[in-house]
Design a protein that fits this description.
Layout (H helix, E strand, L loop, with lengths): L23 H10 L2 H14 L6 E5 L10 H10 L5 E3 L4 E3 L14 H6 L1 E3 L9 E9 L3 H12 L4 E9 L7
Parallel strand pairs: 1-2, 1-5, 5-6
Antiparallel strand pairs: 3-4
Helix pairs in contact: 2-3
């Protein structure tokens, strides 16, 4: 719960707050914009809750744009620099073909994610503890697809972490 952290007061709050557009938007926007201060803040917070005795491969859900570098890539790089037990697996899931962005009218389609992505560096996933990170969950299609892809690579454990969930999304 970020709101209970001492650093929360540093955030610039949105003046027109409502339940569909709360202050967590600041965090998500900063992550998408690759803001260095917020990336440091988020990596420190996430690191504080990780098991310090467990080797973990950090993966992320790829952007809809082929070869796009995202804030989640930056976050994983920062996290993996904090401990030798954390492995940068940000390139383990690769988008090989650009798809239309879902928030701009693109399909939210499980099969489309599978067909346009591949798993690299199986040695970083197979029989490893894997943490799959995403910025936001709306319909759950992408996290379901990439979870399925990773499970086929046979990790020891697979945990997902999402910074935000869209409220009131209707997939119908």
């Amino acid at each position: 719960d970020f709101r209970n952290l001492p650093d929360w007061k540093k955030f610039n709050f949105i003046s027109d707050y409502n339940e569909d557009h709360d202050n967590s938007y600041i965090i998500l926007r900063a992550l998408k914009d690759r803001d260095p201060w917020y990336l440091d803040f988020l990596s420190d917070r996430l690191f504080s809750i990780l098991d310090k005795k467990k080797e973990i491969t950090l993966c992320r859900i790829p952007s809809s744009d082929k070869d796009n570098i995202s804030g989640c890539d930056d976050l994983i790089q920062k996290l993996s620099s904090k401990s030798s037990l954390l492995t940068d697996g940000s390139k383990c899931i690769q988008r090989v073909k650009t798809i239309p962005k879902a928030h701009k009218g693109g399909e939210r389609n499980f099969d489309q994610h599978i067909k346009t992505s591949k798993i690299n560096n199986l040695n970083l996933i197979e029989n490893k503890n894997v943490l799959l990170i995403d910025d936001i969950k709306t319909s759950g299609t992408s996290i379901d697809a990439f979870t399925q892809m990773l499970l086929k690579a046979k990790p020891k454990t697979l945990t997902t972490f999402v910074f935000g969930i869209t409220i009131g999304y209707d997939s119908n």
